[in-house]
Design goal:
Pfam families: Snf7
Helix content: over 70%
Main location: membrane
Keywords: Endosome, Membrane, Protein transport, Transport
Radius of gyration: 41 Å
Number of domains: 1
Strand content: under 5%
Shape: elongated
Subcellular location: Endosome membrane
Family: Belongs to the SNF7 family.
Length: about 210
């Protein structure tokens, strides 16, 4: 009976694998919801550009970039932890795995905060509360963006601007233009035979004198 209890005992490795699966399932759920928010942020960035508000457009794209990085970071961490939990010498990496799972839960909580569509609306509002939120967000994001991130954001902003410019241009017709009607000009017919000239009276007199 004691052997059965030992066989059914949940090990630290079993618990780590279970926690890992829970984190992975949560991430998949969050990804779908955050992707909806990302699309809305791009839409709001377009709207801000259309209104000539580059600052708000940049803020929306910065927030989008930050959320994408959170998702990518969590996904990469889960892959690393999965490799560690599958290792034969789990006891050697147990502490590292537990710390990783703890950090993963913290990141998931942070991602959960980023799934609010209301916050996207606050990016565009001009109320006092919204402006305070925008300033706070801008300060937070500025400290987390690298120079490379800033370049990526500027490229995306320029891409959106080009799309807006192209959308504003009139469409070029894709059907052939109608041919201009030719003027119906009739020309007189050219005679096929040239009429012989009638001899003048002077010519006839000269002919009679010659005979």
């Amino acid at each position: 009976m004691g052997s059965n209890v030992s066989k059914n005992k949940v090990t630290a490795q079993d618990k780590a694998i279970l926690d890992l699966k829970i984190q992975r399932d949560k991430l998949k759920q969050y990804q779908k919801k955050v992707n909806v928010v990302l699309e809305r942020e791009v839409s709001e960035a377009r709207k801000a550009l259309g209104q000539g508000n580059k600052k708000k457009a940049l803020l929306a794209l910065k927030k989008k970039k930050y959320q994408e990085q959170l998702l990518e970071k969590t996904e990469q961490q889960l892959m690393n932890l999965e490799e560690l939990t599958n290792t034969i010498e789990f006891a050697l990496v147990e502490k590292q795995v537990m710390e990783g799972l703890k950090g993963g839960n913290a990141i998931l909580k942070e991602i959960h905060k980023e799934m609010s569509l209301e916050d996207v609306e606050r990016l565009m509002d001009d109320t006092e509360d919204a402006i305070a939120y925008q300033n706070e967000l801008d300060e937070m994001l500025s400290g987390r963006m690298t120079a490379e991130d800033e370049e990526d954001i500027m490229r995306e902003l320029e891409g959106l601007r080009q799309e807006e410019l192209e959308a504003a241009l009139p469409e070029v017709p894709n059907h052939p233009l109608p041919e201009t009607e030719r003027a119906d000009v009739s020309f007189p017919e050219v005679p096929t035979q040239i009429p012989t000239a009638t001899p003048s009276k002077n010519t006839e007199k000269q002919a009679m004198l010659a005979t």
